[in-house]
Design a protein that fits this description.
This protein is α/β, with parallel strands linked by helices and 319 residues long. It contains 8 helices and 8 strands.
Length: 319
């Protein structure tokens, strides 16, 4: 009979946030994943701000007798964190612990399960609305995190397209909470001129946090300026059962040797237009200065700039 020491241990690697609510939601998702893996030792930790940090979780698994650890990125798409920061953490830990096998799983990525969860979140917002508006008179605005990685940003636009066709709304557009354009306020300024009676704003995020709050604040401003349009706020993905399913799928792919990162359009491995200088950049972490820095009950938006050249965060998830 297998014991937890005989089976691969699981390390769930979260982004981290200054927002206590976002950290609490991640911890709840980690609990849900642990419930699905009762025979495995499972720990979770954060790349930045929140504690425990990832190394603390890895230490616990190693000290409990783990011989193999699968690291699951708790992030939707592969931008700087999944391509650089987390692999740097895993590689450094493996180098310091000879004989310990470390496997880095793929990001959640474009996944039918997540699209199904996203569709349900939008349908929940429609069902909760007090008015009845035809789908053909409805526009969906999907909001991604926004990064300086065009590959990750383009994945959000693919989600938008697939949700448009899957939901049969009149039209769909994409916006970003930071770094990439159009920002949410810019996207809202455009779509409010298109003549739709209802606009649904859906943050394609795993958790809440500063960025989701910013998105919904922009929605409130647009609603105040456009009283003839109904605005609905769809919930982010959170710990939807389909999200848990996607995590388990990434785990199984990693264990089966099938969990390969999509490197076809990775700016660090291919010469991508507009990012030629990133080709061959060393795979090193960038967030040591904020590891375990702490969280707040109601963190303010600490001067996060909105322009391409002012905000150098490589984030894959909300802060």
């Amino acid at each position: 009979m297998s014991t937890p020491q005989d089976l691969p241990a699981i390390m769930i690697c979260g982004h981290g946030s200054r927002s206590k609510s976002a950290v609490d939601e991640f911890n709840q998702l980690a609990v849900r994943i642990k419930e699905r893996l009762p025979d495995h030792n499972v720990e979770s930790g954060f790349l930045e701000f929140a504690t425990p940090v990832i190394r603390t979780g890895l230490d616990k698994l190693r000290d409990a007798g783990a011989k193999k650890i699968v690291c699951l990125p708790g992030m939707l798409f592969a931008a700087g964190h999944v391509k650089n920061d987390l692999p740097s953490e895993v590689n450094n830990y493996a180098a310091e612990n000879e004989g310990l096998e470390m496997i880095f799983a793929a990001d959640l990525g474009l996944d039918a399960r997540l699209l199904d969860a996203a569709k349900q979140r939008v349908e929940e917002a429609i069902a909760a609305a007090s008015t009845d508006v035809a789908l053909e008179d409805t526009l969906l605005l999907v909001v991604g995190r926004g990064t300086n990685d065009s590959d990750a940003n383009s994945n959000v636009t693919k989600v938008t397209r697939m949700m448009w066709e899957g939901l049969n709304v009149g039209w769909a557009e994409t916006g970003y909470s930071g770094v990439a354009y159009p920002l949410v306020d810019q996207a809202l300024a455009r779509v409010t001129k298109m003549g739709f009676k209802r606009i649904i704003v859906f943050p394609y995020f795993l958790f809440s946090g500063i960025l989701v709050t910013r998105i919904f604040n922009w929605v409130d401003e647009a609603a105040a300026a456009n009283p003839d349009i109904e605005f609905l706020k769809a919930s982010y993905l959170n710990d939807h059962p389909k999200v848990i399913d996607a995590f388990i799928a990434r785990l199984n792919e990693a264990l089966d040797g099938e969990g390969n990162m999509n490197c076809q359009l990775c700016k660090y491995r291919e010469q991508i237009i507009g990012h030629e200088h990133d080709l061959g950049t060393a795979q090193v972490g960038h967030h040591h200065h904020v590891q375990g820095a702490g969280v707040e009950e109601n963190p303010e938006d600490h001067g996060v700039h909105h322009g391409h050249h002012h905000h150098h965060h490589h984030g894959d998830e909300g802060k």
